[in-house]
Amino acid sequence: MTFKILTDSTADLSENWTQENDVQVLGLTIQLDGQTYETVGAGKLTSQELLDKMESGSKPTTSQINVGQFEDVFRSYAKEGTPVLYVAFASALSGTYQSAVMAREIVLEDFPDALIRIIDTKAASMGEGLLVMKATEARVAGQTLEQTADLIESLVPKVKTYFLVDDLNHLMRGGRISKTAALMGSLVNIKPIIAVQADGSLKPIAKVRGKKKAQAECVRMLLENIADDRAVIAHADADQDAENLKEQLLADGRVKEVLIEPLGPVIATHVGPGTLALFGFAKNDRD
After folding, report:
1. Beta-carbon neighbour count of residue 51 at 10 Å?
2. Neighbour tally for 110: CB within 10 Å
3. What is the largest distance, in Å, between two alpha-carbon atoms of the chain?
4. Cβ neighbours of residue 53 under 8 Å, at least 6 residues apart?
5. DSSP state at residue 94
6. pTM for this predicted structure
7. In the structure, what pLDDT confidence band is assigned to residue 201 with cuts at 50, 70 and 90?
8. Cβ neighbours around 34 below 10 Å, total
9. DSSP states of 46-72 as a string?
């Protein structure tokens, strides 16, 4: 029996890709200038709209997917007898994963035979997205839900993520890093590099003077233990910088394919305009 793959709007996968690959995306919401915006479906807030507002001084916040939303989705598939694999945003960065776990328990009370597997990717943006892509590839190859879930669980520690941000205050405002860590990025022309740790939390790991040197350092760190010939770049209104990173990655020779995607509005809320992010699977587990 085939199964349904779910993820959320923090995975930053394009709508065309999710539709073509039969992946359902559940949306976190954004509060911006006194209004609440959806991040999936018709009328959703786009990244560009959000970034333009942030450039003008707006300070958006995000809200997790709640238990009731997950319960409705899980229950609909349980009634159909369709197994579900939910590839979730890092639990260290949002309560969304825990909401899903609670909803699963509620649905299992009425449908004890329902198969609902939830994976904490301990990742964000296209780090999470890469795992969703692997899940769809496994499903196409004929793997069962349990086989696919076990594969994804084994890959979670291998996902490497490096964010190059212009302003750490966005992450501080959302509670993702401490005020002390944010001070690291306050120096003129210092570009902080943030890594996603083994537990899914964010940690500033380097401060590099100058954008070009910082970009080169991100490329170096991603390539030093890369285990796959695919890498992904995500960006917040930094198209040219993303193209420059792509050229550097391909020039090395170890990477054969580089995807470029815009950061979705949820992640962009927390990292701000000008952010670049690199993702790939490594030979070694995350620190």
Report:
1. 23
2. 10
3. 58
4. 32, 33, 60
5. -
6. 0.93
7. very high
8. 5
9. PHHHHHHHHHTT---EEEPPPHHHHHH
